[in-house]
Amino acid sequence: MNMERLRQDVMDLAQVGRDTEFGLNRRAFTECDRQGRDWFRQRLAVAGLEVHQDGAANLHGRLEFDGERPAVVMGSHLDTVPGGGPLDGALGVLVGLEVLRTVKERAIPLRFPLEVIDFTDEEGRFGGLFGSQAMAGQLTPERIHGARDLEGTTLVDAMAGWGLDANEALGARRDPNSIHAFLELHIEQGPVLDRRRIGIGVVEAITGLFKWEVRLKGQANHAGTTPMDMRIDAFQGLAEFGGEIHRILEEHGGPNSRATIGRVELKPGAANTIPGLATFSLEVRDTDDRVLKALSDACRRTLSSIARRRDLMFEFDVLSEIPPAKCDPGLVELISREAEAMGQSYLCMASGAAHDAQSMTSVARTGMIFVPSIEGRSHSAGEWTNWEDIEAGANLMLRSVLALAARD
């Protein structure tokens, strides 16, 4: 692989959507997202690759694609969370691009076409994994028209702002017979590989999650004149639930369970007014469907009990539900074998983050490669991976793709 070219791509893309204080912000269907996609489209064109955009706005780069042979597909995403880092998602797209360029420049004979995809809205502005779910045929009109971000902007309106019809995402569904295998390279986004000084993670399972917007409704009132035992304080209900999260995980979760309250809004929002409304996000993750269901039920019961005891009203909307997924055992073995052939240390592991790969498991054999994240940092400006680890992961991807697609 041409590491100088890959390094330059990483550094160039890291300037798109940059905020000098808070990292990158290329949220889906924003102007900075458009700039990142335009940059990628240009790189595909310069490399002499076929460029295609489907109804979900997924951007494809293709080599020897003929519509008859199934393709070996790589992909990830270029969109970021607000304040994100330069490698989350983007590294997988850029490594896929470099694989296609390398194969094309060396004129390596292929049994199967190659393809790299930038998937739309992986990070979840409108629920997460939108582009890969569209390709997997997992979208419905209800899901499309009900999707909105935390500020209330709808997916339909955001896509219309780009001149796109959101309903066309239903036509992005990919025939499973058109994909020979799907591979995704990604930073781990956790500390396991870095702390154990292991260069490669071979992913066996990918976490699922549910994300709610929860509302506890009480009664706004004067902070000075309302006695403590006469308050209907929405924030106190939120605080009590926050204290219950560890108990819920201990009683109903497992070693891969996670729960996070990441966003809170109190209204009216005045220092001298008792909050009458607490709105907050709740995101829960696990790699086992049954455990996720048990955690969902436990969260609902706990919130209902707190609301009854505190005379609050409890409501919630489901913002997204993503099922856990297993990687293909044959691809786990292939990637492990190629890592051994390189003399590269590796660890078979679960992913605690959601990825486009888990959508693709429903339509294709799917495998994932992790590279270490320094100190486990991600979704922050401090996210980084050493260049030697990036090079090892990129070359492992190249070897794995050629093992699947190259002629003997």
From TrEMBL:
Q: Which InterPro entries match?
A: Amidase_Cbmase, Bact_exopeptidase_dim_dom, Peptidase_M20, Peptidase_M20_dimer
Positions of Zn(2+) 1 binding: H77, D88, H186
Q: Which cofactor does it need?
A: Zn(2+)
Enumerate the SUPFAM superfamilies for this protein: Bacterial exopeptidase dimerisation domain, Zn-dependent exopeptidases
Task: State where Zn(2+) 2 binds.
Answer: D88, E123, H379
- Native species: Thioalkalivibrio nitratireducens (strain DSM 14787 / UNIQEM 213 / ALEN2)
Q: What is its EC number?
A: 3.5.1.87
The terms under GO molecular function for this entry are:
hydrolase activity, acting on carbon-nitrogen (but not peptide) bonds, in linear amidines; metal ion binding; N-carbamoyl-L-amino-acid hydrolase activity
- Record keywords: Hydrolase, Metal-binding, Zinc
Note on how the cofactor is bound: Binds 2 Zn(2+) ions per subunit.
CDD domains documented for this protein: M20_bAS (cd03884)
Q: Indicate the segments forming the Peptidase M20 dimerisation domain, all copies.
A: 208-308
Q: What is the protein name given in its UniProt record? A: N-carbamoyl-L-amino acid amidohydrolase
Report the Pfam families cross-referenced here: M20_dimer (PF07687), Peptidase_M20 (PF01546)
What is its EC class?
hydrolase
- State the family it belongs to: Belongs to the peptidase M20 family.
